[in-house]
């Protein structure tokens, strides 16, 4: 065997498909955004709770017909006692388990929020990741629609707290019972019509994309798109089609109550639909009483969400401003979160009814929207002040570290250079790459006089261009002052304040 063959293979560094690394800017933007969301939830009297990343798979309720392994939609493993555990795919199922397990200790109604990563074992694609963050809020143990109305109001307040102006968002509200009743009226009730019913709901959900003509085609014989691909329709008769599409365009209605009245006129003869219409009417009145009109919270019969999950009101936050997609086209940004009433989820564990309602924000998608609006990451973090190292003996190092700690104690980001201090040019290059605003220098002469050199690197660049070595540094002497050690912190603060004013003027 040759020496080349004996040489161990170098491990290849590779990111798993569907996952991403996040840099400092993204992490800080995320922290900024979630802090604003959290403040709204706290203001409404909600408290945080945290559940683990793993749950027993049966608690999540996702299985394949093959009982030996869980659904491909979740990442799973077997514990040492042969029980299947899975990474959570949302934050609601773990909450349901938590409530059921601690039901006797929890004060109902239980009002809680939580943020965390969830995992989907699905094929990744553009903008579609296997790990992403959600931020949820839920009320468990409140059966009345006032809890759903409050969720919608908190959703709206969250959008505005993030800097999204009125007119740039709307909280769309519908009801599972209304949707079920509508479909029963046009002949799509019963188990035998389950597939057609699902296709009809998908057609209604395409209203924003295709308009009423496109929805008519999908509810009827089918629709051919621009590429020539044909989507088979639901096959409803013309009367049924017109009954459904007649409630989609709510622009002709003056307010939410007119939309509700239209729903009642068309489907009120159906008991299930009438119950949902009454709930929508109550929500419309409650939010209007609190000052939330249809420009913020809107009853919208085209709002369709996962209907196997929800049992009553459903809602969705939609951003209405346009962005440029990967094809260069202007498109409405769309949904950034949603939720609704899910009275059956906790009940799976309890054997008794436990009402619940909540909503979930897709954090990554909302972050993208806020960046498009220029509402996130605008508060630039100033890079650390760099304390350079001129002498490597322990006594000198101790003095440099003392300067660094004095700056930190004053609330100023600072670091002492930790690389090869003997090449001073490397320290300057490091300061440039880091974007350091100020450098602190003390050689033997300065130390003997109790002085320290403070270099304004931002001003220095502007006046003299790039400084690449020690000689150029000492010859230029631009934007550099020598001060007593005792004045170090105060003078650095003055320079940083002046730089902040310059950025504000330029911004």
What keyword list fits this structure?
19 helices, 507 residues, BirA Bifunctional Protein, domain 2, five-stranded mixed β-sheet, Rossmann fold, eight-stranded mixed β-sheet, alpha+beta, single chain
Question: How are the elements arranged and paired?
Answer:
Blueprint: H1 3-6, H2 24-43, E1 47-48, E2 54-56, H3 57-60, E3 76-78, E4 84-87, H4 92-101, E5 110-119, E6 131-140, H5 145-161, E7 169-175, H6 176-185, H7 194-205, H8 207-219, E8 222-224, E9 230-232, H9 238-245, H10 256-267, H11 271-289, E10 297-299, E11 313-324, E12 330-341, H12 347-350, E13 356-362, H13 363-373, E14 385-387, H14 394-409, E15 414-416, H15 424-434, E16 438-441, H16 444-448, E17 451-456, H17 457-464, H18 470-476, E18 480-484, H19 488-506
Parallel strand pairs: 1-5, 7-10, 14-15, 14-16
Antiparallel strand pairs: 2-4, 3-4, 5-6, 6-13, 7-11, 8-9, 11-12, 12-13, 16-17, 17-18
Helix pairs in contact: 2-5, 5-11, 6-11, 7-8, 10-11
Main location: cytoplasm
Protein name: Histidine--tRNA ligase
GO cellular component, one term: cytoplasm
Please give a structural write-up.
- The chain has 507 residues and is α+β, with helices and mostly antiparallel strands.
- The protein is 41% helix and 20% strand.
- The protein has 19 helices and 18 strands.
- The strands form 4 sheets. Strands 1-5-6-13-12-11-7-10 form an 8-stranded mixed sheet. The chain has a 5-stranded mixed sheet with strand order 15-14-16-17-18. The chain has a 3-stranded antiparallel sheet with strand order 2-4-3.
- Mean pLDDT is 88; it is low at 62-69.
């Amino acid at each position: 065997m040759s020496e080349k063959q004996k040489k161990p293979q170098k491990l290849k560094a590779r990111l798993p498909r569907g996952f991403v690394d996040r840099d400092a800017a993204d992490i800080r933007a995320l922290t900024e955004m979630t802090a604003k969301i959290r403040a709204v939830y706290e203001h409404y009297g909600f408290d945080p709770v945290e559940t683990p990343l793993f749950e027993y798979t049966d608690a999540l309720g996702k299985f394949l017909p093959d009982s030996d392994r869980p659904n491909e939609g979740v990442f799973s493993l077997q514990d040492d006692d042969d029980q299947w555990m899975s990474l959570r795919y949302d934050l609601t199922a773990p909450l349901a388990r938590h409530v059921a397990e601690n039901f006797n200790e929890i004060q109902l109604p239980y009002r809680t929020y939580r943020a965390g990563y969830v995992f989907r074992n699905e094929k990744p694609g553009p903008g579609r990741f296997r790990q992403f963050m959600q931020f949820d809020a839920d009320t468990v143990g409140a059966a009345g629609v006032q809890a759903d109305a409050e969720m919608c109001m908190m959703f709206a307040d969250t959008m505005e707290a993030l800097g999204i102006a009125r007119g740039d968002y709307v909280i769309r509200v519908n009801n599972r019972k209304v949707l079920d009743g509508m479909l029963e009226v046009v002949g799509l009730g019963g188990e035998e019509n389950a597939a057609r019913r699902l296709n009809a709901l998908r057609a209604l959900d395409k209203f924003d994309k295709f308009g009423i003509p496109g929805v008519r085609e999908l509810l009827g014989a089918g629709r051919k798109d621009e590429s020539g691909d044909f989507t088979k329709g639901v096959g409803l008769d013309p009367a049924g089609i017109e009954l459904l599409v007649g409630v989609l365009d709510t622009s002709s209605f003056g307010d939410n109550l007119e939309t509700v009245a239209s729903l009642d006129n068309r489907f009120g003869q159906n008991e299930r639909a009438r119950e949902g219409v009454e709930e929508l009417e109550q929500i419309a009145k409650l939010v209007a009483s609190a000052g939330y009109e249809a420009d913020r919270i809107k009853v919208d019969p085209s709002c369709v969400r996962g209907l196997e999950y929800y049992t009553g009101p459903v809602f969705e936050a939609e951003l209405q401003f346009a962005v440029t997609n990967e094809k260069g086209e202007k498109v409405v940004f769309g949904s950034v979160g949603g939720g609704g009433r899910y009275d059956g989820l906790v009940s799976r564990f309890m054997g008794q009814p436990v009402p619940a309602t909540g909503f979930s924000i897709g954090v990554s998608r909302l972050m993208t929207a806020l960046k498009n609006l220029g509402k996130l990451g605008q508060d630039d973090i100033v890079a650390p002040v760099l304390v350079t190292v001129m002498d490597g003996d322990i006594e000198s190092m101790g003095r440099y570290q003392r300067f660094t700690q004095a700056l930190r104690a004053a609330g100023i980001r600072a670091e002492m250079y930790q690389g090869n201090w003997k090449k001073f040019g490397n320290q300057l290059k490091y300061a440039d790459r880091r974007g350091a605003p100020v450098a602190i220098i003390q050689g033997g002469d300065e130390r003997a006089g109790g002085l320290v050199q403070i270099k304004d690197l931002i001003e220095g660049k502007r006046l003299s261009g790039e400084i690449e070595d020690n000689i150029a540094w000492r010859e230029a002497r631009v934007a550099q002052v020598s001060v007593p050690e005792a004045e170090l912190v105060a003078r650095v603060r003055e320079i940083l304040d002046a730089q902040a004013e310059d950025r504000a003027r330029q911004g």
